[in-house]
Design goal:
With 369 residues, the protein is of the alpha/beta class. Helix content is 39%, strand content 17%.
Amino acid sequence: MVVQTASNSGGISTDGLPPVAPISLKTIPMAGLLVDVYGLDELPASVTRVSCLWLHHQRTRNKEHMREIAARCVGAWNESTSSEKDSSRGLIALAYDQRNHGTRLVHDPANGAWREGNKTHAQDMLGGIVGMVGDQRVLLDVVESYLFHDSGEEGKQRKVIDHHLALGVSLGGHSVWQLMFADPRVRAGVAVIGCPDYMNLITDRARLSKLSTYSAGTGAATFLGSKDFPPSLVAAACRTDPKGILFGTSPIPSSPSSPSSSPSSADEEESQRRQILIERLQGKQFLLCNGAEDKLVPPRCGEAFTKWFKEAAEKYKEPRISVDERTYAGVGHTFSVGMVKDAVEWVKEVVKGADADIAAQARNGKSKI
């Protein structure tokens, strides 16, 4: 089965997978947002520490489209700990609508691309991504106070939320990439058919859309800063998007450079990038799932960044970044069966290692949440 809308873009495919077990769902207003919380009723009485899996849905969808992956991830974790009589860690999954989607829809045409007549596609999509990250950070601040405000009272086991991870699909994959760079509390991220280089993705989309502001001869040099990608939007992407944070509008080098015997400006820039990795990503884990035949978010748009990022994670040991990139042959712009299976297993292993990650953060002088 493929859960989808008419566009069949970014849907989740579960053909051949075992049926998912029923799971509890509570929709709770938090900080002005309706948040679907999966697995709250299934938390064992022995649980004192809770991991939150935050789910970011696709463009033109809503939070309900994350029900399947929420049930599979939480169900897999609960099954893995069912034989542990006094398991102290639990997992819940949470989903809320992206801006201008679902219960938050204000102007549907803004969710379209240039080809669908939306002249402000670049602004609308980046604004939504950055907004989703901002909303997520607010929810990280308050979620425990909403879910477990009365835990620890007489006769109740005290529960704390001390671990966060995120999974996003398509538009949600873009927002997970930005979230991982934005908030130290989110320790692991699954970016499914997402891109870490927004400027390159949108420049490529401008080319395919045959915009007048895109020139085959100059490409991004003339498009970035044009009316379709104004200078203020370039500045915003440089502040929020992974590629922009590390490289601005400059080309990405083929690999992280080693310091030369005669220090140069290039060495200084590389040192600054290394420091950014330490400050923003220390100890974080990434699972990147790409469809080899994806035409909407082509892997090539994030290829240069991802290559540099993986090599930097290998070369620079101090940040302790783990990057697991998987490209699925024959898969287009969809959350395929293989991706679903891999994501569920990966999330389970990340939650299993939560206590070790929290201890490592404490040793490095960072707050656990």
